[in-house]
Design a protein that fits this description.
single chain, alpha/beta, three-stranded mixed sheet, globular
């Protein structure tokens, strides 16, 4: 059902574009960040939609992309903070810049990356994110929040849940502290693997899996499982979610997509 989401994204973006003026706040501690060297009309539409909700609540915009797109991005979003991706991480396909998933993870797992962002409250979003509404400010109390992708059940009934980072909230100081104190190998040593029933995805060295594992062991402030869906969803469906990560993967049925969009005053007029 990705076609419905994509169509609404483009039409909504075109509607708000003539009047949308994204502000830059000098005294805010909040920034929304997208990392992608493939700047195109879809990326522009996603940024406009995200900032439609975020910017009025004091969120600045940071776009991290390929240097060749800098002028276009600044023209489309004059008040954005632009940062270029290191050329050593870029590969080219048909002359167009891109990065591998491994390179993306390396960026996010580099402590210097987080040190360069001079905001404590950081929202990471990607091109496959669709915001339904603004999320509750209570989520800013946590150190890391993302869509709940995997739930590992321990034998003692404790839960070790992994949160997807595609649309995620992070505390800058928490990310830095994690990276300075714990590696993947160290965290694996802390987990009693014999007590884990489901280890699917646990050993993929992705940045969101790393922070999902390290944050609890360093006693970072994490949301209860039953709150996460109010912030973001992925494979699961929850009509009261603020955002959906992975709309391009058609996780939801046509009926579910139409239900959640038609109930939203921002989008119901774009479904015909």
């Amino acid at each position: 059902m990705s076609e419905i989401y994509e169509n609404v994204l483009y039409r909504f973006s075109e509607k708000i574009k003539p009047t949308q003026e994204i502000q830059i706040y000098e005294n805010t501690d909040k920034v929304a960040v997208i990392i992608d060297p493939r700047y195109d009309t879809l990326m522009e539409a996603v940024i406009r939609q995200q900032m439609f909700f975020l910017n009025p609540h004091g969120w600045n915009l940071m776009v991290i992309s390929h240097a060749s797109h800098a002028d276009k991005i600044r023209a489309d979003f004059p008040n954005c903070i632009f940062m270029s991706i290191d050329e050593s991480l870029i590969y080219y396909r048909d002359g167009n810049p891109n990065i591998t998933l491994n390179s993306y993870n390396n960026i996010m797992l580099n402590v210097d990356f987080w040190k360069r962002i001079q905001f404590e409250n950081i929202l990471i979003f990607q091109k496959d994110c669709f915001m339904y509404k603004m999320f509750d400010a209570k989520f800013l109390e946590y150190d890391y929040v993302g869509a709940c992708a995997v739930l590992c059940i321990l034998e003692n009934d404790q839960c070790l849940y992994l949160m997807n980072g595609g649309f995620s909230f992070r505390k800058r100081t928490a990310m830095i502290d994690c990276l300075q104190k714990c590696s993947f190998d160290q965290i694996y040593e802390k987990i009693d693997m014999e007590k884990i029933i489901d280890v699917k995805n646990l050993f993929i060295k992705a940045e969101d899996i790393y922070f999902s594992l390290v944050c609890p062991f360093l006693q970072k402030n994490m949301p209860p499982v039953d709150e996460i869906s109010f912030f973001s969803i992925e494979m699961e469906y929850f009509a009261d979610a603020a955002c959906h990560h992975g709309w391009n993967k058609s996780y939801h049925t046509t009926e579910q997509v139409l239900e959640i969009l038609s109930a939203n005053p921002n989008y119901k007029d774009f479904l015909n």
